[in-house]
Write a structure and sequence with these properties.
This protein is of the alpha/beta class. The protein is built from seven helices and five strands. Helix 1 packs across helix 6 and helix 6 crosses helix 7.
Length: about 240
C-alpha cells in the first residue's frame, strides 16, 4: 500500500523536526513545507533543508513571502530580540517575537498544498507547554483552523473525508519532545532554534528559544549538539 501524503510545516528547529519524524513514524509520506517570510534568522532555511534530506521527506518546498512588509515583530522588524529572560517570564504574555498571524498564514499554505496533493493530514509542531506565549500555538486555535479547513476548501466540502491538523507535541515538555525525537533517531545537530543566530548559524544562547532548548537538553541529560556563541553554556 502506498503511503498517504501529509504536509508537515518545517522550520528546521527542534519541534518541527521532531514533528516530521513523528509523521514519518506514523506511516505518512511527509511533504515538508518551509516558509521564507523575511525572518531575521534566515539561516534556519538551511537547517530545514538538512533536516528534510536527512529524514527522507517525500518532497520539500520553500515558499517565499515577505512579512517584513508588515513588521510588528522582533523577527520581521528592527526590534530587539529579548535576551536572558527568567524562566517565569517565558510563557507569560505575548513577547515581541510573536509574528502577527504567522501560523494562520503557514497553515493556510499547508492547506493549499495538501488540497493539491490530495492529502488530508497536516502536521505542525506547535506546543502549549514549553512555549513563549504565542496565541496561535493553543489547542483552541488549532481546532478552529481545522474547522476552517473543512469549511473553506473544495476538498473539505466534498464530504469525502475531512482535513486533520495533527499537533503531536502540543502537550509535551521540551524534555519529552527531545526524548521522542531521539527515540526516532533524530540528529538534533542538524537543527537550529535560535531567534538571533549569526550568519554562520551559531546560536546566541540567550534568547527565549535558546533558553527553552538548553533547558530541555539539560533535563534529558545530554549536551545540545548545536553550536553556541562563546560564553554561553550548551550543556
Amino acid at each position: 500500500m502506498p503511503q498517504q501524503p501529509a504536509v508537515v510545516l518545517l522550520s528546521g528547529g527542534v519541534d518541527s523536526t521532531t514533528t516530521l519524524a513523528v509523521a514519518k513514524a506514523r506511516g505518512f509520506a511527509p511533504h515538508a513545507l518551509t516558509v521564507s517570510y523575511g525572518q531575521r534568522h534566515a539561516v534556519e532555511l538551511e537547517a530545514a533543508r538538512r533536516v528534510a534530506a536527512a529524514l527522507g521527506a517525500a518532497a520539500h518546498k520553500v515558499v517565499r513571502l515577505d512579512l517584513r512588509a508588515f513588521g510588528g515583530s522582533a523577527l520581521t522588524a528592527d526590534i530587539a530580540v529579548p535576551k536572558d529572560r527568567a524562566p517565569d517570564e517565558i510563557g507569560h504574555g505575548i513577547p515581541v517575537t510573536y509574528v502577527p498571524a504567522r501560523n494562520t498564514i503557514f497553515l493556510s499554505l499547508s492547506l493549499a498544498w495538501a488540497e493539491v496533493l490530495g492529502a488530508w493530514d497536516i502536521f505542525v509542531g506547535v506546543n502549549a507547554l514549553d512555549y513563549s506565549g504565542y496565541p496561535d500555538c493553543r489547542p483552541d486555535y488549532i481546532a478552529a483552523f481545522e474547522r476552517l479547513a473543512n469549511l473553506g476548501t473544495k476538498a473539505g466540502v466534498s464530504g469525502m473525508r475531512t482535513f486533520a491538523v495533527h499537533t503531536p507535541l502540543i502537550r509535551m515538555t521540551k524534555r519529552e519532545i527531545l526524548r521522542t525525537g531521539l527515540g526516532l533517531g533524530v540528529d538534533y545537530a542538524l537543527t537550529l532554534s535560535c531567534y538571533d543566530p549569526d550568519d554562520a548559524g551559531v546560536a546566541c544562547g540567550t534568547c527565549d528559544a535558546c533558553l527553552l532548548r538548553l533547558k530541555g537538553f539539560a533535563e534529558v541529560g545530554i549536551a545540545d549538539p548545536a553550536p553556541y556563541r562563546s560564553g554561553t553554556v550548551a550543556e
